[in-house]
Specification:
heterodimer, A: mainly alpha, 13 helices, globular, B: 316 residues, six-stranded mixed sheet
């Protein structure tokens, strides 16, 4: 029992818990639409694209949120625009811009003469170091993202499932697409401190992917993803506290474990089903 | 309004294309009343004058002239790649025309979007998507609900009614991918019905479905047309077009002909629509297998394959 309550005595741990649960929640909601839209790779691209923004903000002594948002949203819009106009496949454009932006970040990073621990935190996540002010900013941005989805969940769903019919009946499908890319970018900015650039994609994709193995209705899929997204950080943080290991890695590992469990036990893929089939035949 | 076009009499066509007499007039400007009347007939729902459209820099349809009154039940026929789907997308406002004038329900394409129900080809849909049949039908209500508002009693009633009309009430809670091809088409027609449109634009709504489904769905569409709705559906199944629709638009790069269902029996029209895909045996014209991808040939249609003249080679 004390193993569970002991960490709560530390303010940094409580802050980390609040931040990572919030991040897990927002990531799961956005990730559900992302997975259904086939944009999993986009999450990876935009998080890496945020890196030059973070480094530039550091160099200019601006808030990292600002730099990361500009870089990620800018890249998201550029990917959308180039794909539409350049007759390139989406994954091609993403591949080019993703690596290019990350290289720019690495280049800017290498211009800084001395070691900068803060910036490494953005690569691998440092949720235990999150400040009270960071938490407030994170909460505000989370409310913005969740608010937009609450307002437009139907429209996003219809334009994801059947964009032609949705557009013909008057939904602004192209605008919704750009808006959604913007939401992905904001979600990544929210997640950078907690899990870091390299692991954000797991927070976005894994809960929804796990839910896809278990549910065949959208509402249930979203619900399962949200539960995983909100619970996994709690498990991950405790494991990290007890074993004194990297928190972001453990959060992602807990989610990955949930995915593997669903894979093993789920109705479509599971071992149970395989065994039942064996019994039937 | 853009420039009025010259009379279509310039086109030396063997069949009078447009079923209504009188001089063609350019469509009304969008600001005019909802349905512009013409010559005392039923109000026009669709009016295209000299329209061309394509993808990138490749034209698909050129010089399209088309007039369809409200309450018409129209099959768009033609070869694959002839522009059937493109014509539907153009009317749906999904494609910008390159030129010409279009009036849809008395406005620009897309202006009265909420009065339009478009159903894409089955191939365009991700059937693994996590939605149940009832969820899909409810999507038909989303545009009129607008942001923030959740579906209410009226929406649920409209969905239930639409599912009932297509005979899918018992399957409302099943994931769409778990349904048969015919049931999927039923669900998509139910979504269109639930949106209570004035104009139905259906891309191959009965392709690849069993005869019972085809009869059921066409009966529903027939009833909608009789109640004044405009129904336009593409099909590459000429027998079905002649049997189930009251008017035919033959398309191959342009509108080749427009008229009543007997049009598909006119060998001249068929030749102009299908060109080299047509085989004449005595007085009868036969359509060589034009990449028909339905599972079974409907009653009355015999598919002839090159190399096996005279033998109806049915798909296994």
């Amino acid at each position: 029992m004390t193993a569970l309550t002991e960490p709560l005595a530390y303010e940094f741990f409580v802050r980390a818990l609040a931040a990572s649960v919030l991040v897990g929640l927002v990531c799961a909601v956005i990730g559900t639409y992302m997975v259904l839209r086939g944009l999993a790779f986009m999450g990876d691209a935009l998080s890496h694209a945020a890196f030059p923004g973070v480094v530039a903000a550091y160099l200019l002594k601006a808030p990292f949120y600002l730099g990361a948002t500009i870089a990620a949203v800018g890249t998201a819009l550029a990917i959308g625009w180039i794909t539409r106009r350049g007759r390139l496949r989406g994954d091609t454009t993403i591949g080019v811009l993703f690596a290019g932006m990350f290289a720019l970040g690495v280049f800017l990073f290498s211009t800084i003469p001395n070691y900068v621990g803060d910036l490494f935190g953005f690569l691998f996540g440092e949720v235990l170091g999150i400040s009270g002010a960071d938490l407030v900013a994170l909460a505000v941005l989370s409310i913005v993202v969740l608010g937009v989805v609450t307002l437009l969940w139907k429209e996003l769903l219809y334009s994801t499932f059947d964009p032609l019919a949705a557009a013909a009946s008057g939904l602004p499908v192209a605008a919704l697409e750009y808006l959604f890319l913007g939401l992905i970018a904001l979600t990544i900015v929210i997640s950078l401190q907690a899990v870091g650039i390299i692991l954000v994609v797991a927070m976005l994709v894994t809960p929804a992917a796990t839910a896809q193995l278990l549910a065949d209705r959208f509402s249930r899929l979203m619900a399962i993803a949200v539960v995983i997204g909100a619970v996994a950080p709690v498990g991950g943080l405790y494991l990290s506290f007890w074993t004194n290991t990297a928190s972001s890695a453990l959060i992602v590992l807990v989610e990955t474990a949930a995915f593997l469990l669903a894979l093993a036990l789920g109705p479509r893929t599971g071992l149970l089903r395989a065994r039942r089939r064996a019994v039937d035949s | 309004m853009t420039s009025p076009r010259p009379a279509p009499d310039q086109h030396p066509e063997p069949v009078r294309l447009v079923g209504h007499g009188g001089e063609p007039v350019a469509p009304p400007a969008p600001s005019h009343q909802h349905h512009a009347g013409h010559g005392g007939g039923p109000p026009l729902s669709i009016w295209l004058v000299d329209v061309s459209v394509g993808y990138e820099d490749r034209p698909v349809l050129e010089d399209v002239d088309l007039r369809l009154p409200a309450g018409s039940l129209t099959a768009v026929v033609g070869p694959n790649g002839g522009g059937k789907s493109t014509l539907l997308k153009l009317i749906a406002g999904l494609l910008e025309p390159w030129g010409g004038t279009i009036s849809v329900l008395g406005g620009r394409p897309g202006e009265h979007a909420r009065a339009i129900a478009y159903v894409p080809q089955a191939e365009a849909v991700d059937w693994s998507f996590p939605v149940a049949a009832g969820d899909v039908v409810m999507m038909g209500r989303y545009p009129r609900l607008g942001p923030l508002r959740r579906p209410g009693a009226r929406d649920h009633a409209a969905v239930a009614n639409a599912l009932e009309l297509v005979g899918m009430t018992a399957h409302a809670r099943r994931q769409i991918g778990a349904l048969s091809g015919g049931q999927r088409r039923r669900v998509f027609l139910a979504r269109a019905l639930a949106s209570q449109p004035d104009l139905y634009l259906l891309d191959e709504p009965v392709t690849g479905v069993d005869n019972a489904t085809q009869e059921d769905l066409m009966a529903v569409l027939d009833a909608e047309a009789r109640s004044g709705k405009t129904v336009i559906a593409s099909t590459h199944d000429l027998a079905s077009a002649a049997q189930h629709f009251r008017s035919i638009v033959a398309v191959n790069g342009t509108v080749v002909a427009q008229g009543d269902a007997s049009l598909v029996l006119n060998s001249d029209v068929l030749l102009r629509t299908y060109g080299g895909h047509l085989l004449f045996v005595g007085e009868r014209a036969m359509l060589l297998d034009d990449a028909h991808h339905h599972d079974e040939a409907p009653a009355g249609e015999v598919h002839h394959h090159e190399g096996t003249p005279g033998r109806g080679a049915r798909r296994p």
